[in-house]
Write a structure and sequence with these properties.
The chain is α+β, with helices and mostly antiparallel strands. Strand 1 and strand 2 form a beta hairpin. The strands form five sheets. A six-stranded mixed sheet has the order 1-2-6-3-7-18.
Length: 440
């Protein structure tokens, strides 16, 4: 492997240091405290001529913008978008210290190792290499090491775009949600589903629980709505990325044919094993009840109740489309349910006809001998905020050959999260080629 062992070793040590800072984001304004990982990166960059700005949206909620300026103001400005926060852990589910950053048998253990501190560390390594190179690049290279990605970005990239747009202005972006293996291909994220949360409110007739006659508990109405939601599944909608996914991952010709048929697709899902959940998610709008409320006192029959829905949408799905779908799913109950909108965002996608995507294809082929397959992420990331601005953004990575999509999903937010050194080395080597391609 052509990547220098010194660079890989430095990246691994940086990753371990970032894990140990335990920048756990619980969704509260004071959590995260990403300033700790900002300080780690500042120390890593101390010997390099890099312009650094630390921007805090709230005390401790810091992001680092690190830039190497190029010689040509007309050249592309490549953004390397990495986040500094991690999700909480259940320590009882771990066999090692989730914030120990231990290196065990060629793997770095710890929360955030996969999501996405290994990439943030790799981005930092390549930025530092470019800064220390004898020749300046033609275009700017910018590390956007941001806070609060795990809770939606209000204290991170969203805040930066609203308050410091000139500081984070880039023309193209690499970020997370790529690199896993789809058969013989390497998956690169080009799209993400949207979020269109809804609150369903139902009414009943309150009363004293000791005399239920004449009352109508809203808890029963909540149950009726849940039963209806579980009985009706949104229709299959196969987008332009579906065929590429099936071609890359499914080798059985008969199964592939069934998956390409919207009528037969759901019956074929049980034959997909661990990737069935992903296939289900990206082939339709999904509706998941998550939070139920009815009543607050033991002896009072509740007069109202509510259901929070996590709804994930496909590209092109509007808010009106979501409301129409809900009314269709609820059927005869729709007149009894008030639909309120919760916070959300549109699905986003970047085309595969851009110079950056072509650079990714060339780099992956050169390093891994594999072609890439564009995929849609079922969840969301900060990359969507750039896509919303018309900036092409891709989920990058180059994980080792054993990293199927299923293994990747198990690592993201799961117990015993860890990344192997080989995957860090591969990602570094391909990233170096991509950066040279775009800014040299």
């Amino acid at each position: 492997m052509s990547v220098q062992s010194g660079a890989a070793a430095e990246t691994i040590e940086l990753l371990r240091a970032m894990i140990r800072e335990a920048c756990v984001n619980e969704g509260e304004p004071g959590s995260g405290q990403e300033i700790r990982n900002v300080r780690v990166l500042q120390r890593f960059f101390a010997d390099a001529p890099i312009e650094m700005q630390v921007l805090e949206s709230a005390p401790g909620r810091a992001s680092l913008i690190a830039r190497v300026r190029g010689t040509d103001p007309e050249a592309p400005v490549l953004g390397l978008l990495g986040h500094l926060d991690v999700v909480p852990v259940d320590p009882d589910g771990w066999t090692r210290n989730p914030f120990g950053g231990e290196l065990i048998y060629g793997e770095v253990w710890g929360r955030g190792a996969v999501d996405m501190l290994y990439l943030t560390a790799s981005f930092a390594t390549v930025l530092r290499e470019v800064a220390l190179a004898p020749e300046k690049p033609r275009g700017d290279l910018v590390l956007l090491a941001v806070a609060d990605e795990e809770a939606g970005g209000d204290y991170g990239l969203r805040w930066l775009l609203n308050h410091h747009p000139e500081t984070v202005a880039v023309s193209e972006v690499l970020s997370e949600s790529g690199g896993m293996r789809m058969g013989a291909h390497v998956a690169i994220g080009t799209a993400e589903k949207g979020s269109a949360g809804r609150l369903l409110v139902v009414q009943g007739t309150p009363g004293h629980a000791s005399i239920p006659y004449g009352a109508r508990s809203a808890a029963y109405r909540v149950g009726d709505v849940l039963q209806q939601l579980g009985a009706v599944v949104p229709a299959v909608e196969l987008g332009e990325l579906w065929d590429a996914f099936v071609s890359a991952r499914i080798s059985d010709a008969d199964l592939a044919e069934r998956l390409r048929d919207p009528v037969r697709l759901d019956a074929a899902l049980p034959h997909l094993g661990g990737i069935a959940g992903y296939a289900y998610a990206v082939s339709r709008v999904t509706i998941s009840p998550t939070v139920l409320r009815a009543g607050s006192t033991h002896n009072v029959i509740p007069g109202s109740g509510s259901i929070e829905l996590d709804i994930r949408t496909l590209p092109g799905t509007s808010d009106d489309d979501v409301d129409d779908l809900l009314r269709a799913v609820l059927g005869p109950l729709s007149d009894e349910v008030e639909i309120q909108h919760l916070r959300g965002w549109k699905a986003t996608a970047s085309g595969t006809d851009t110079p950056l995507f072509a650079a990714i294809e060339r780099a992956v082929e050169a390093v891994a001998g594999s072609s890439v397959v564009p995929i849609m992420a079922a969840g969301g990331s900060d990359a969507r905020l750039f896509r919303e601005l018309g900036v092409p953004a891709y989920g990058y990575g180059l994980l080792g050959p054993s990293w199927s999509y299923e293994r990747y999903r198990e690592g993201v937010h799961g117990h015993d999260e860890r990344i192997d050194i080989e995957s860090v080395e591969l990602s570094l080597e391909a990233l170096r080629l991509i950066v040279a391609d775009r800014i040299s």
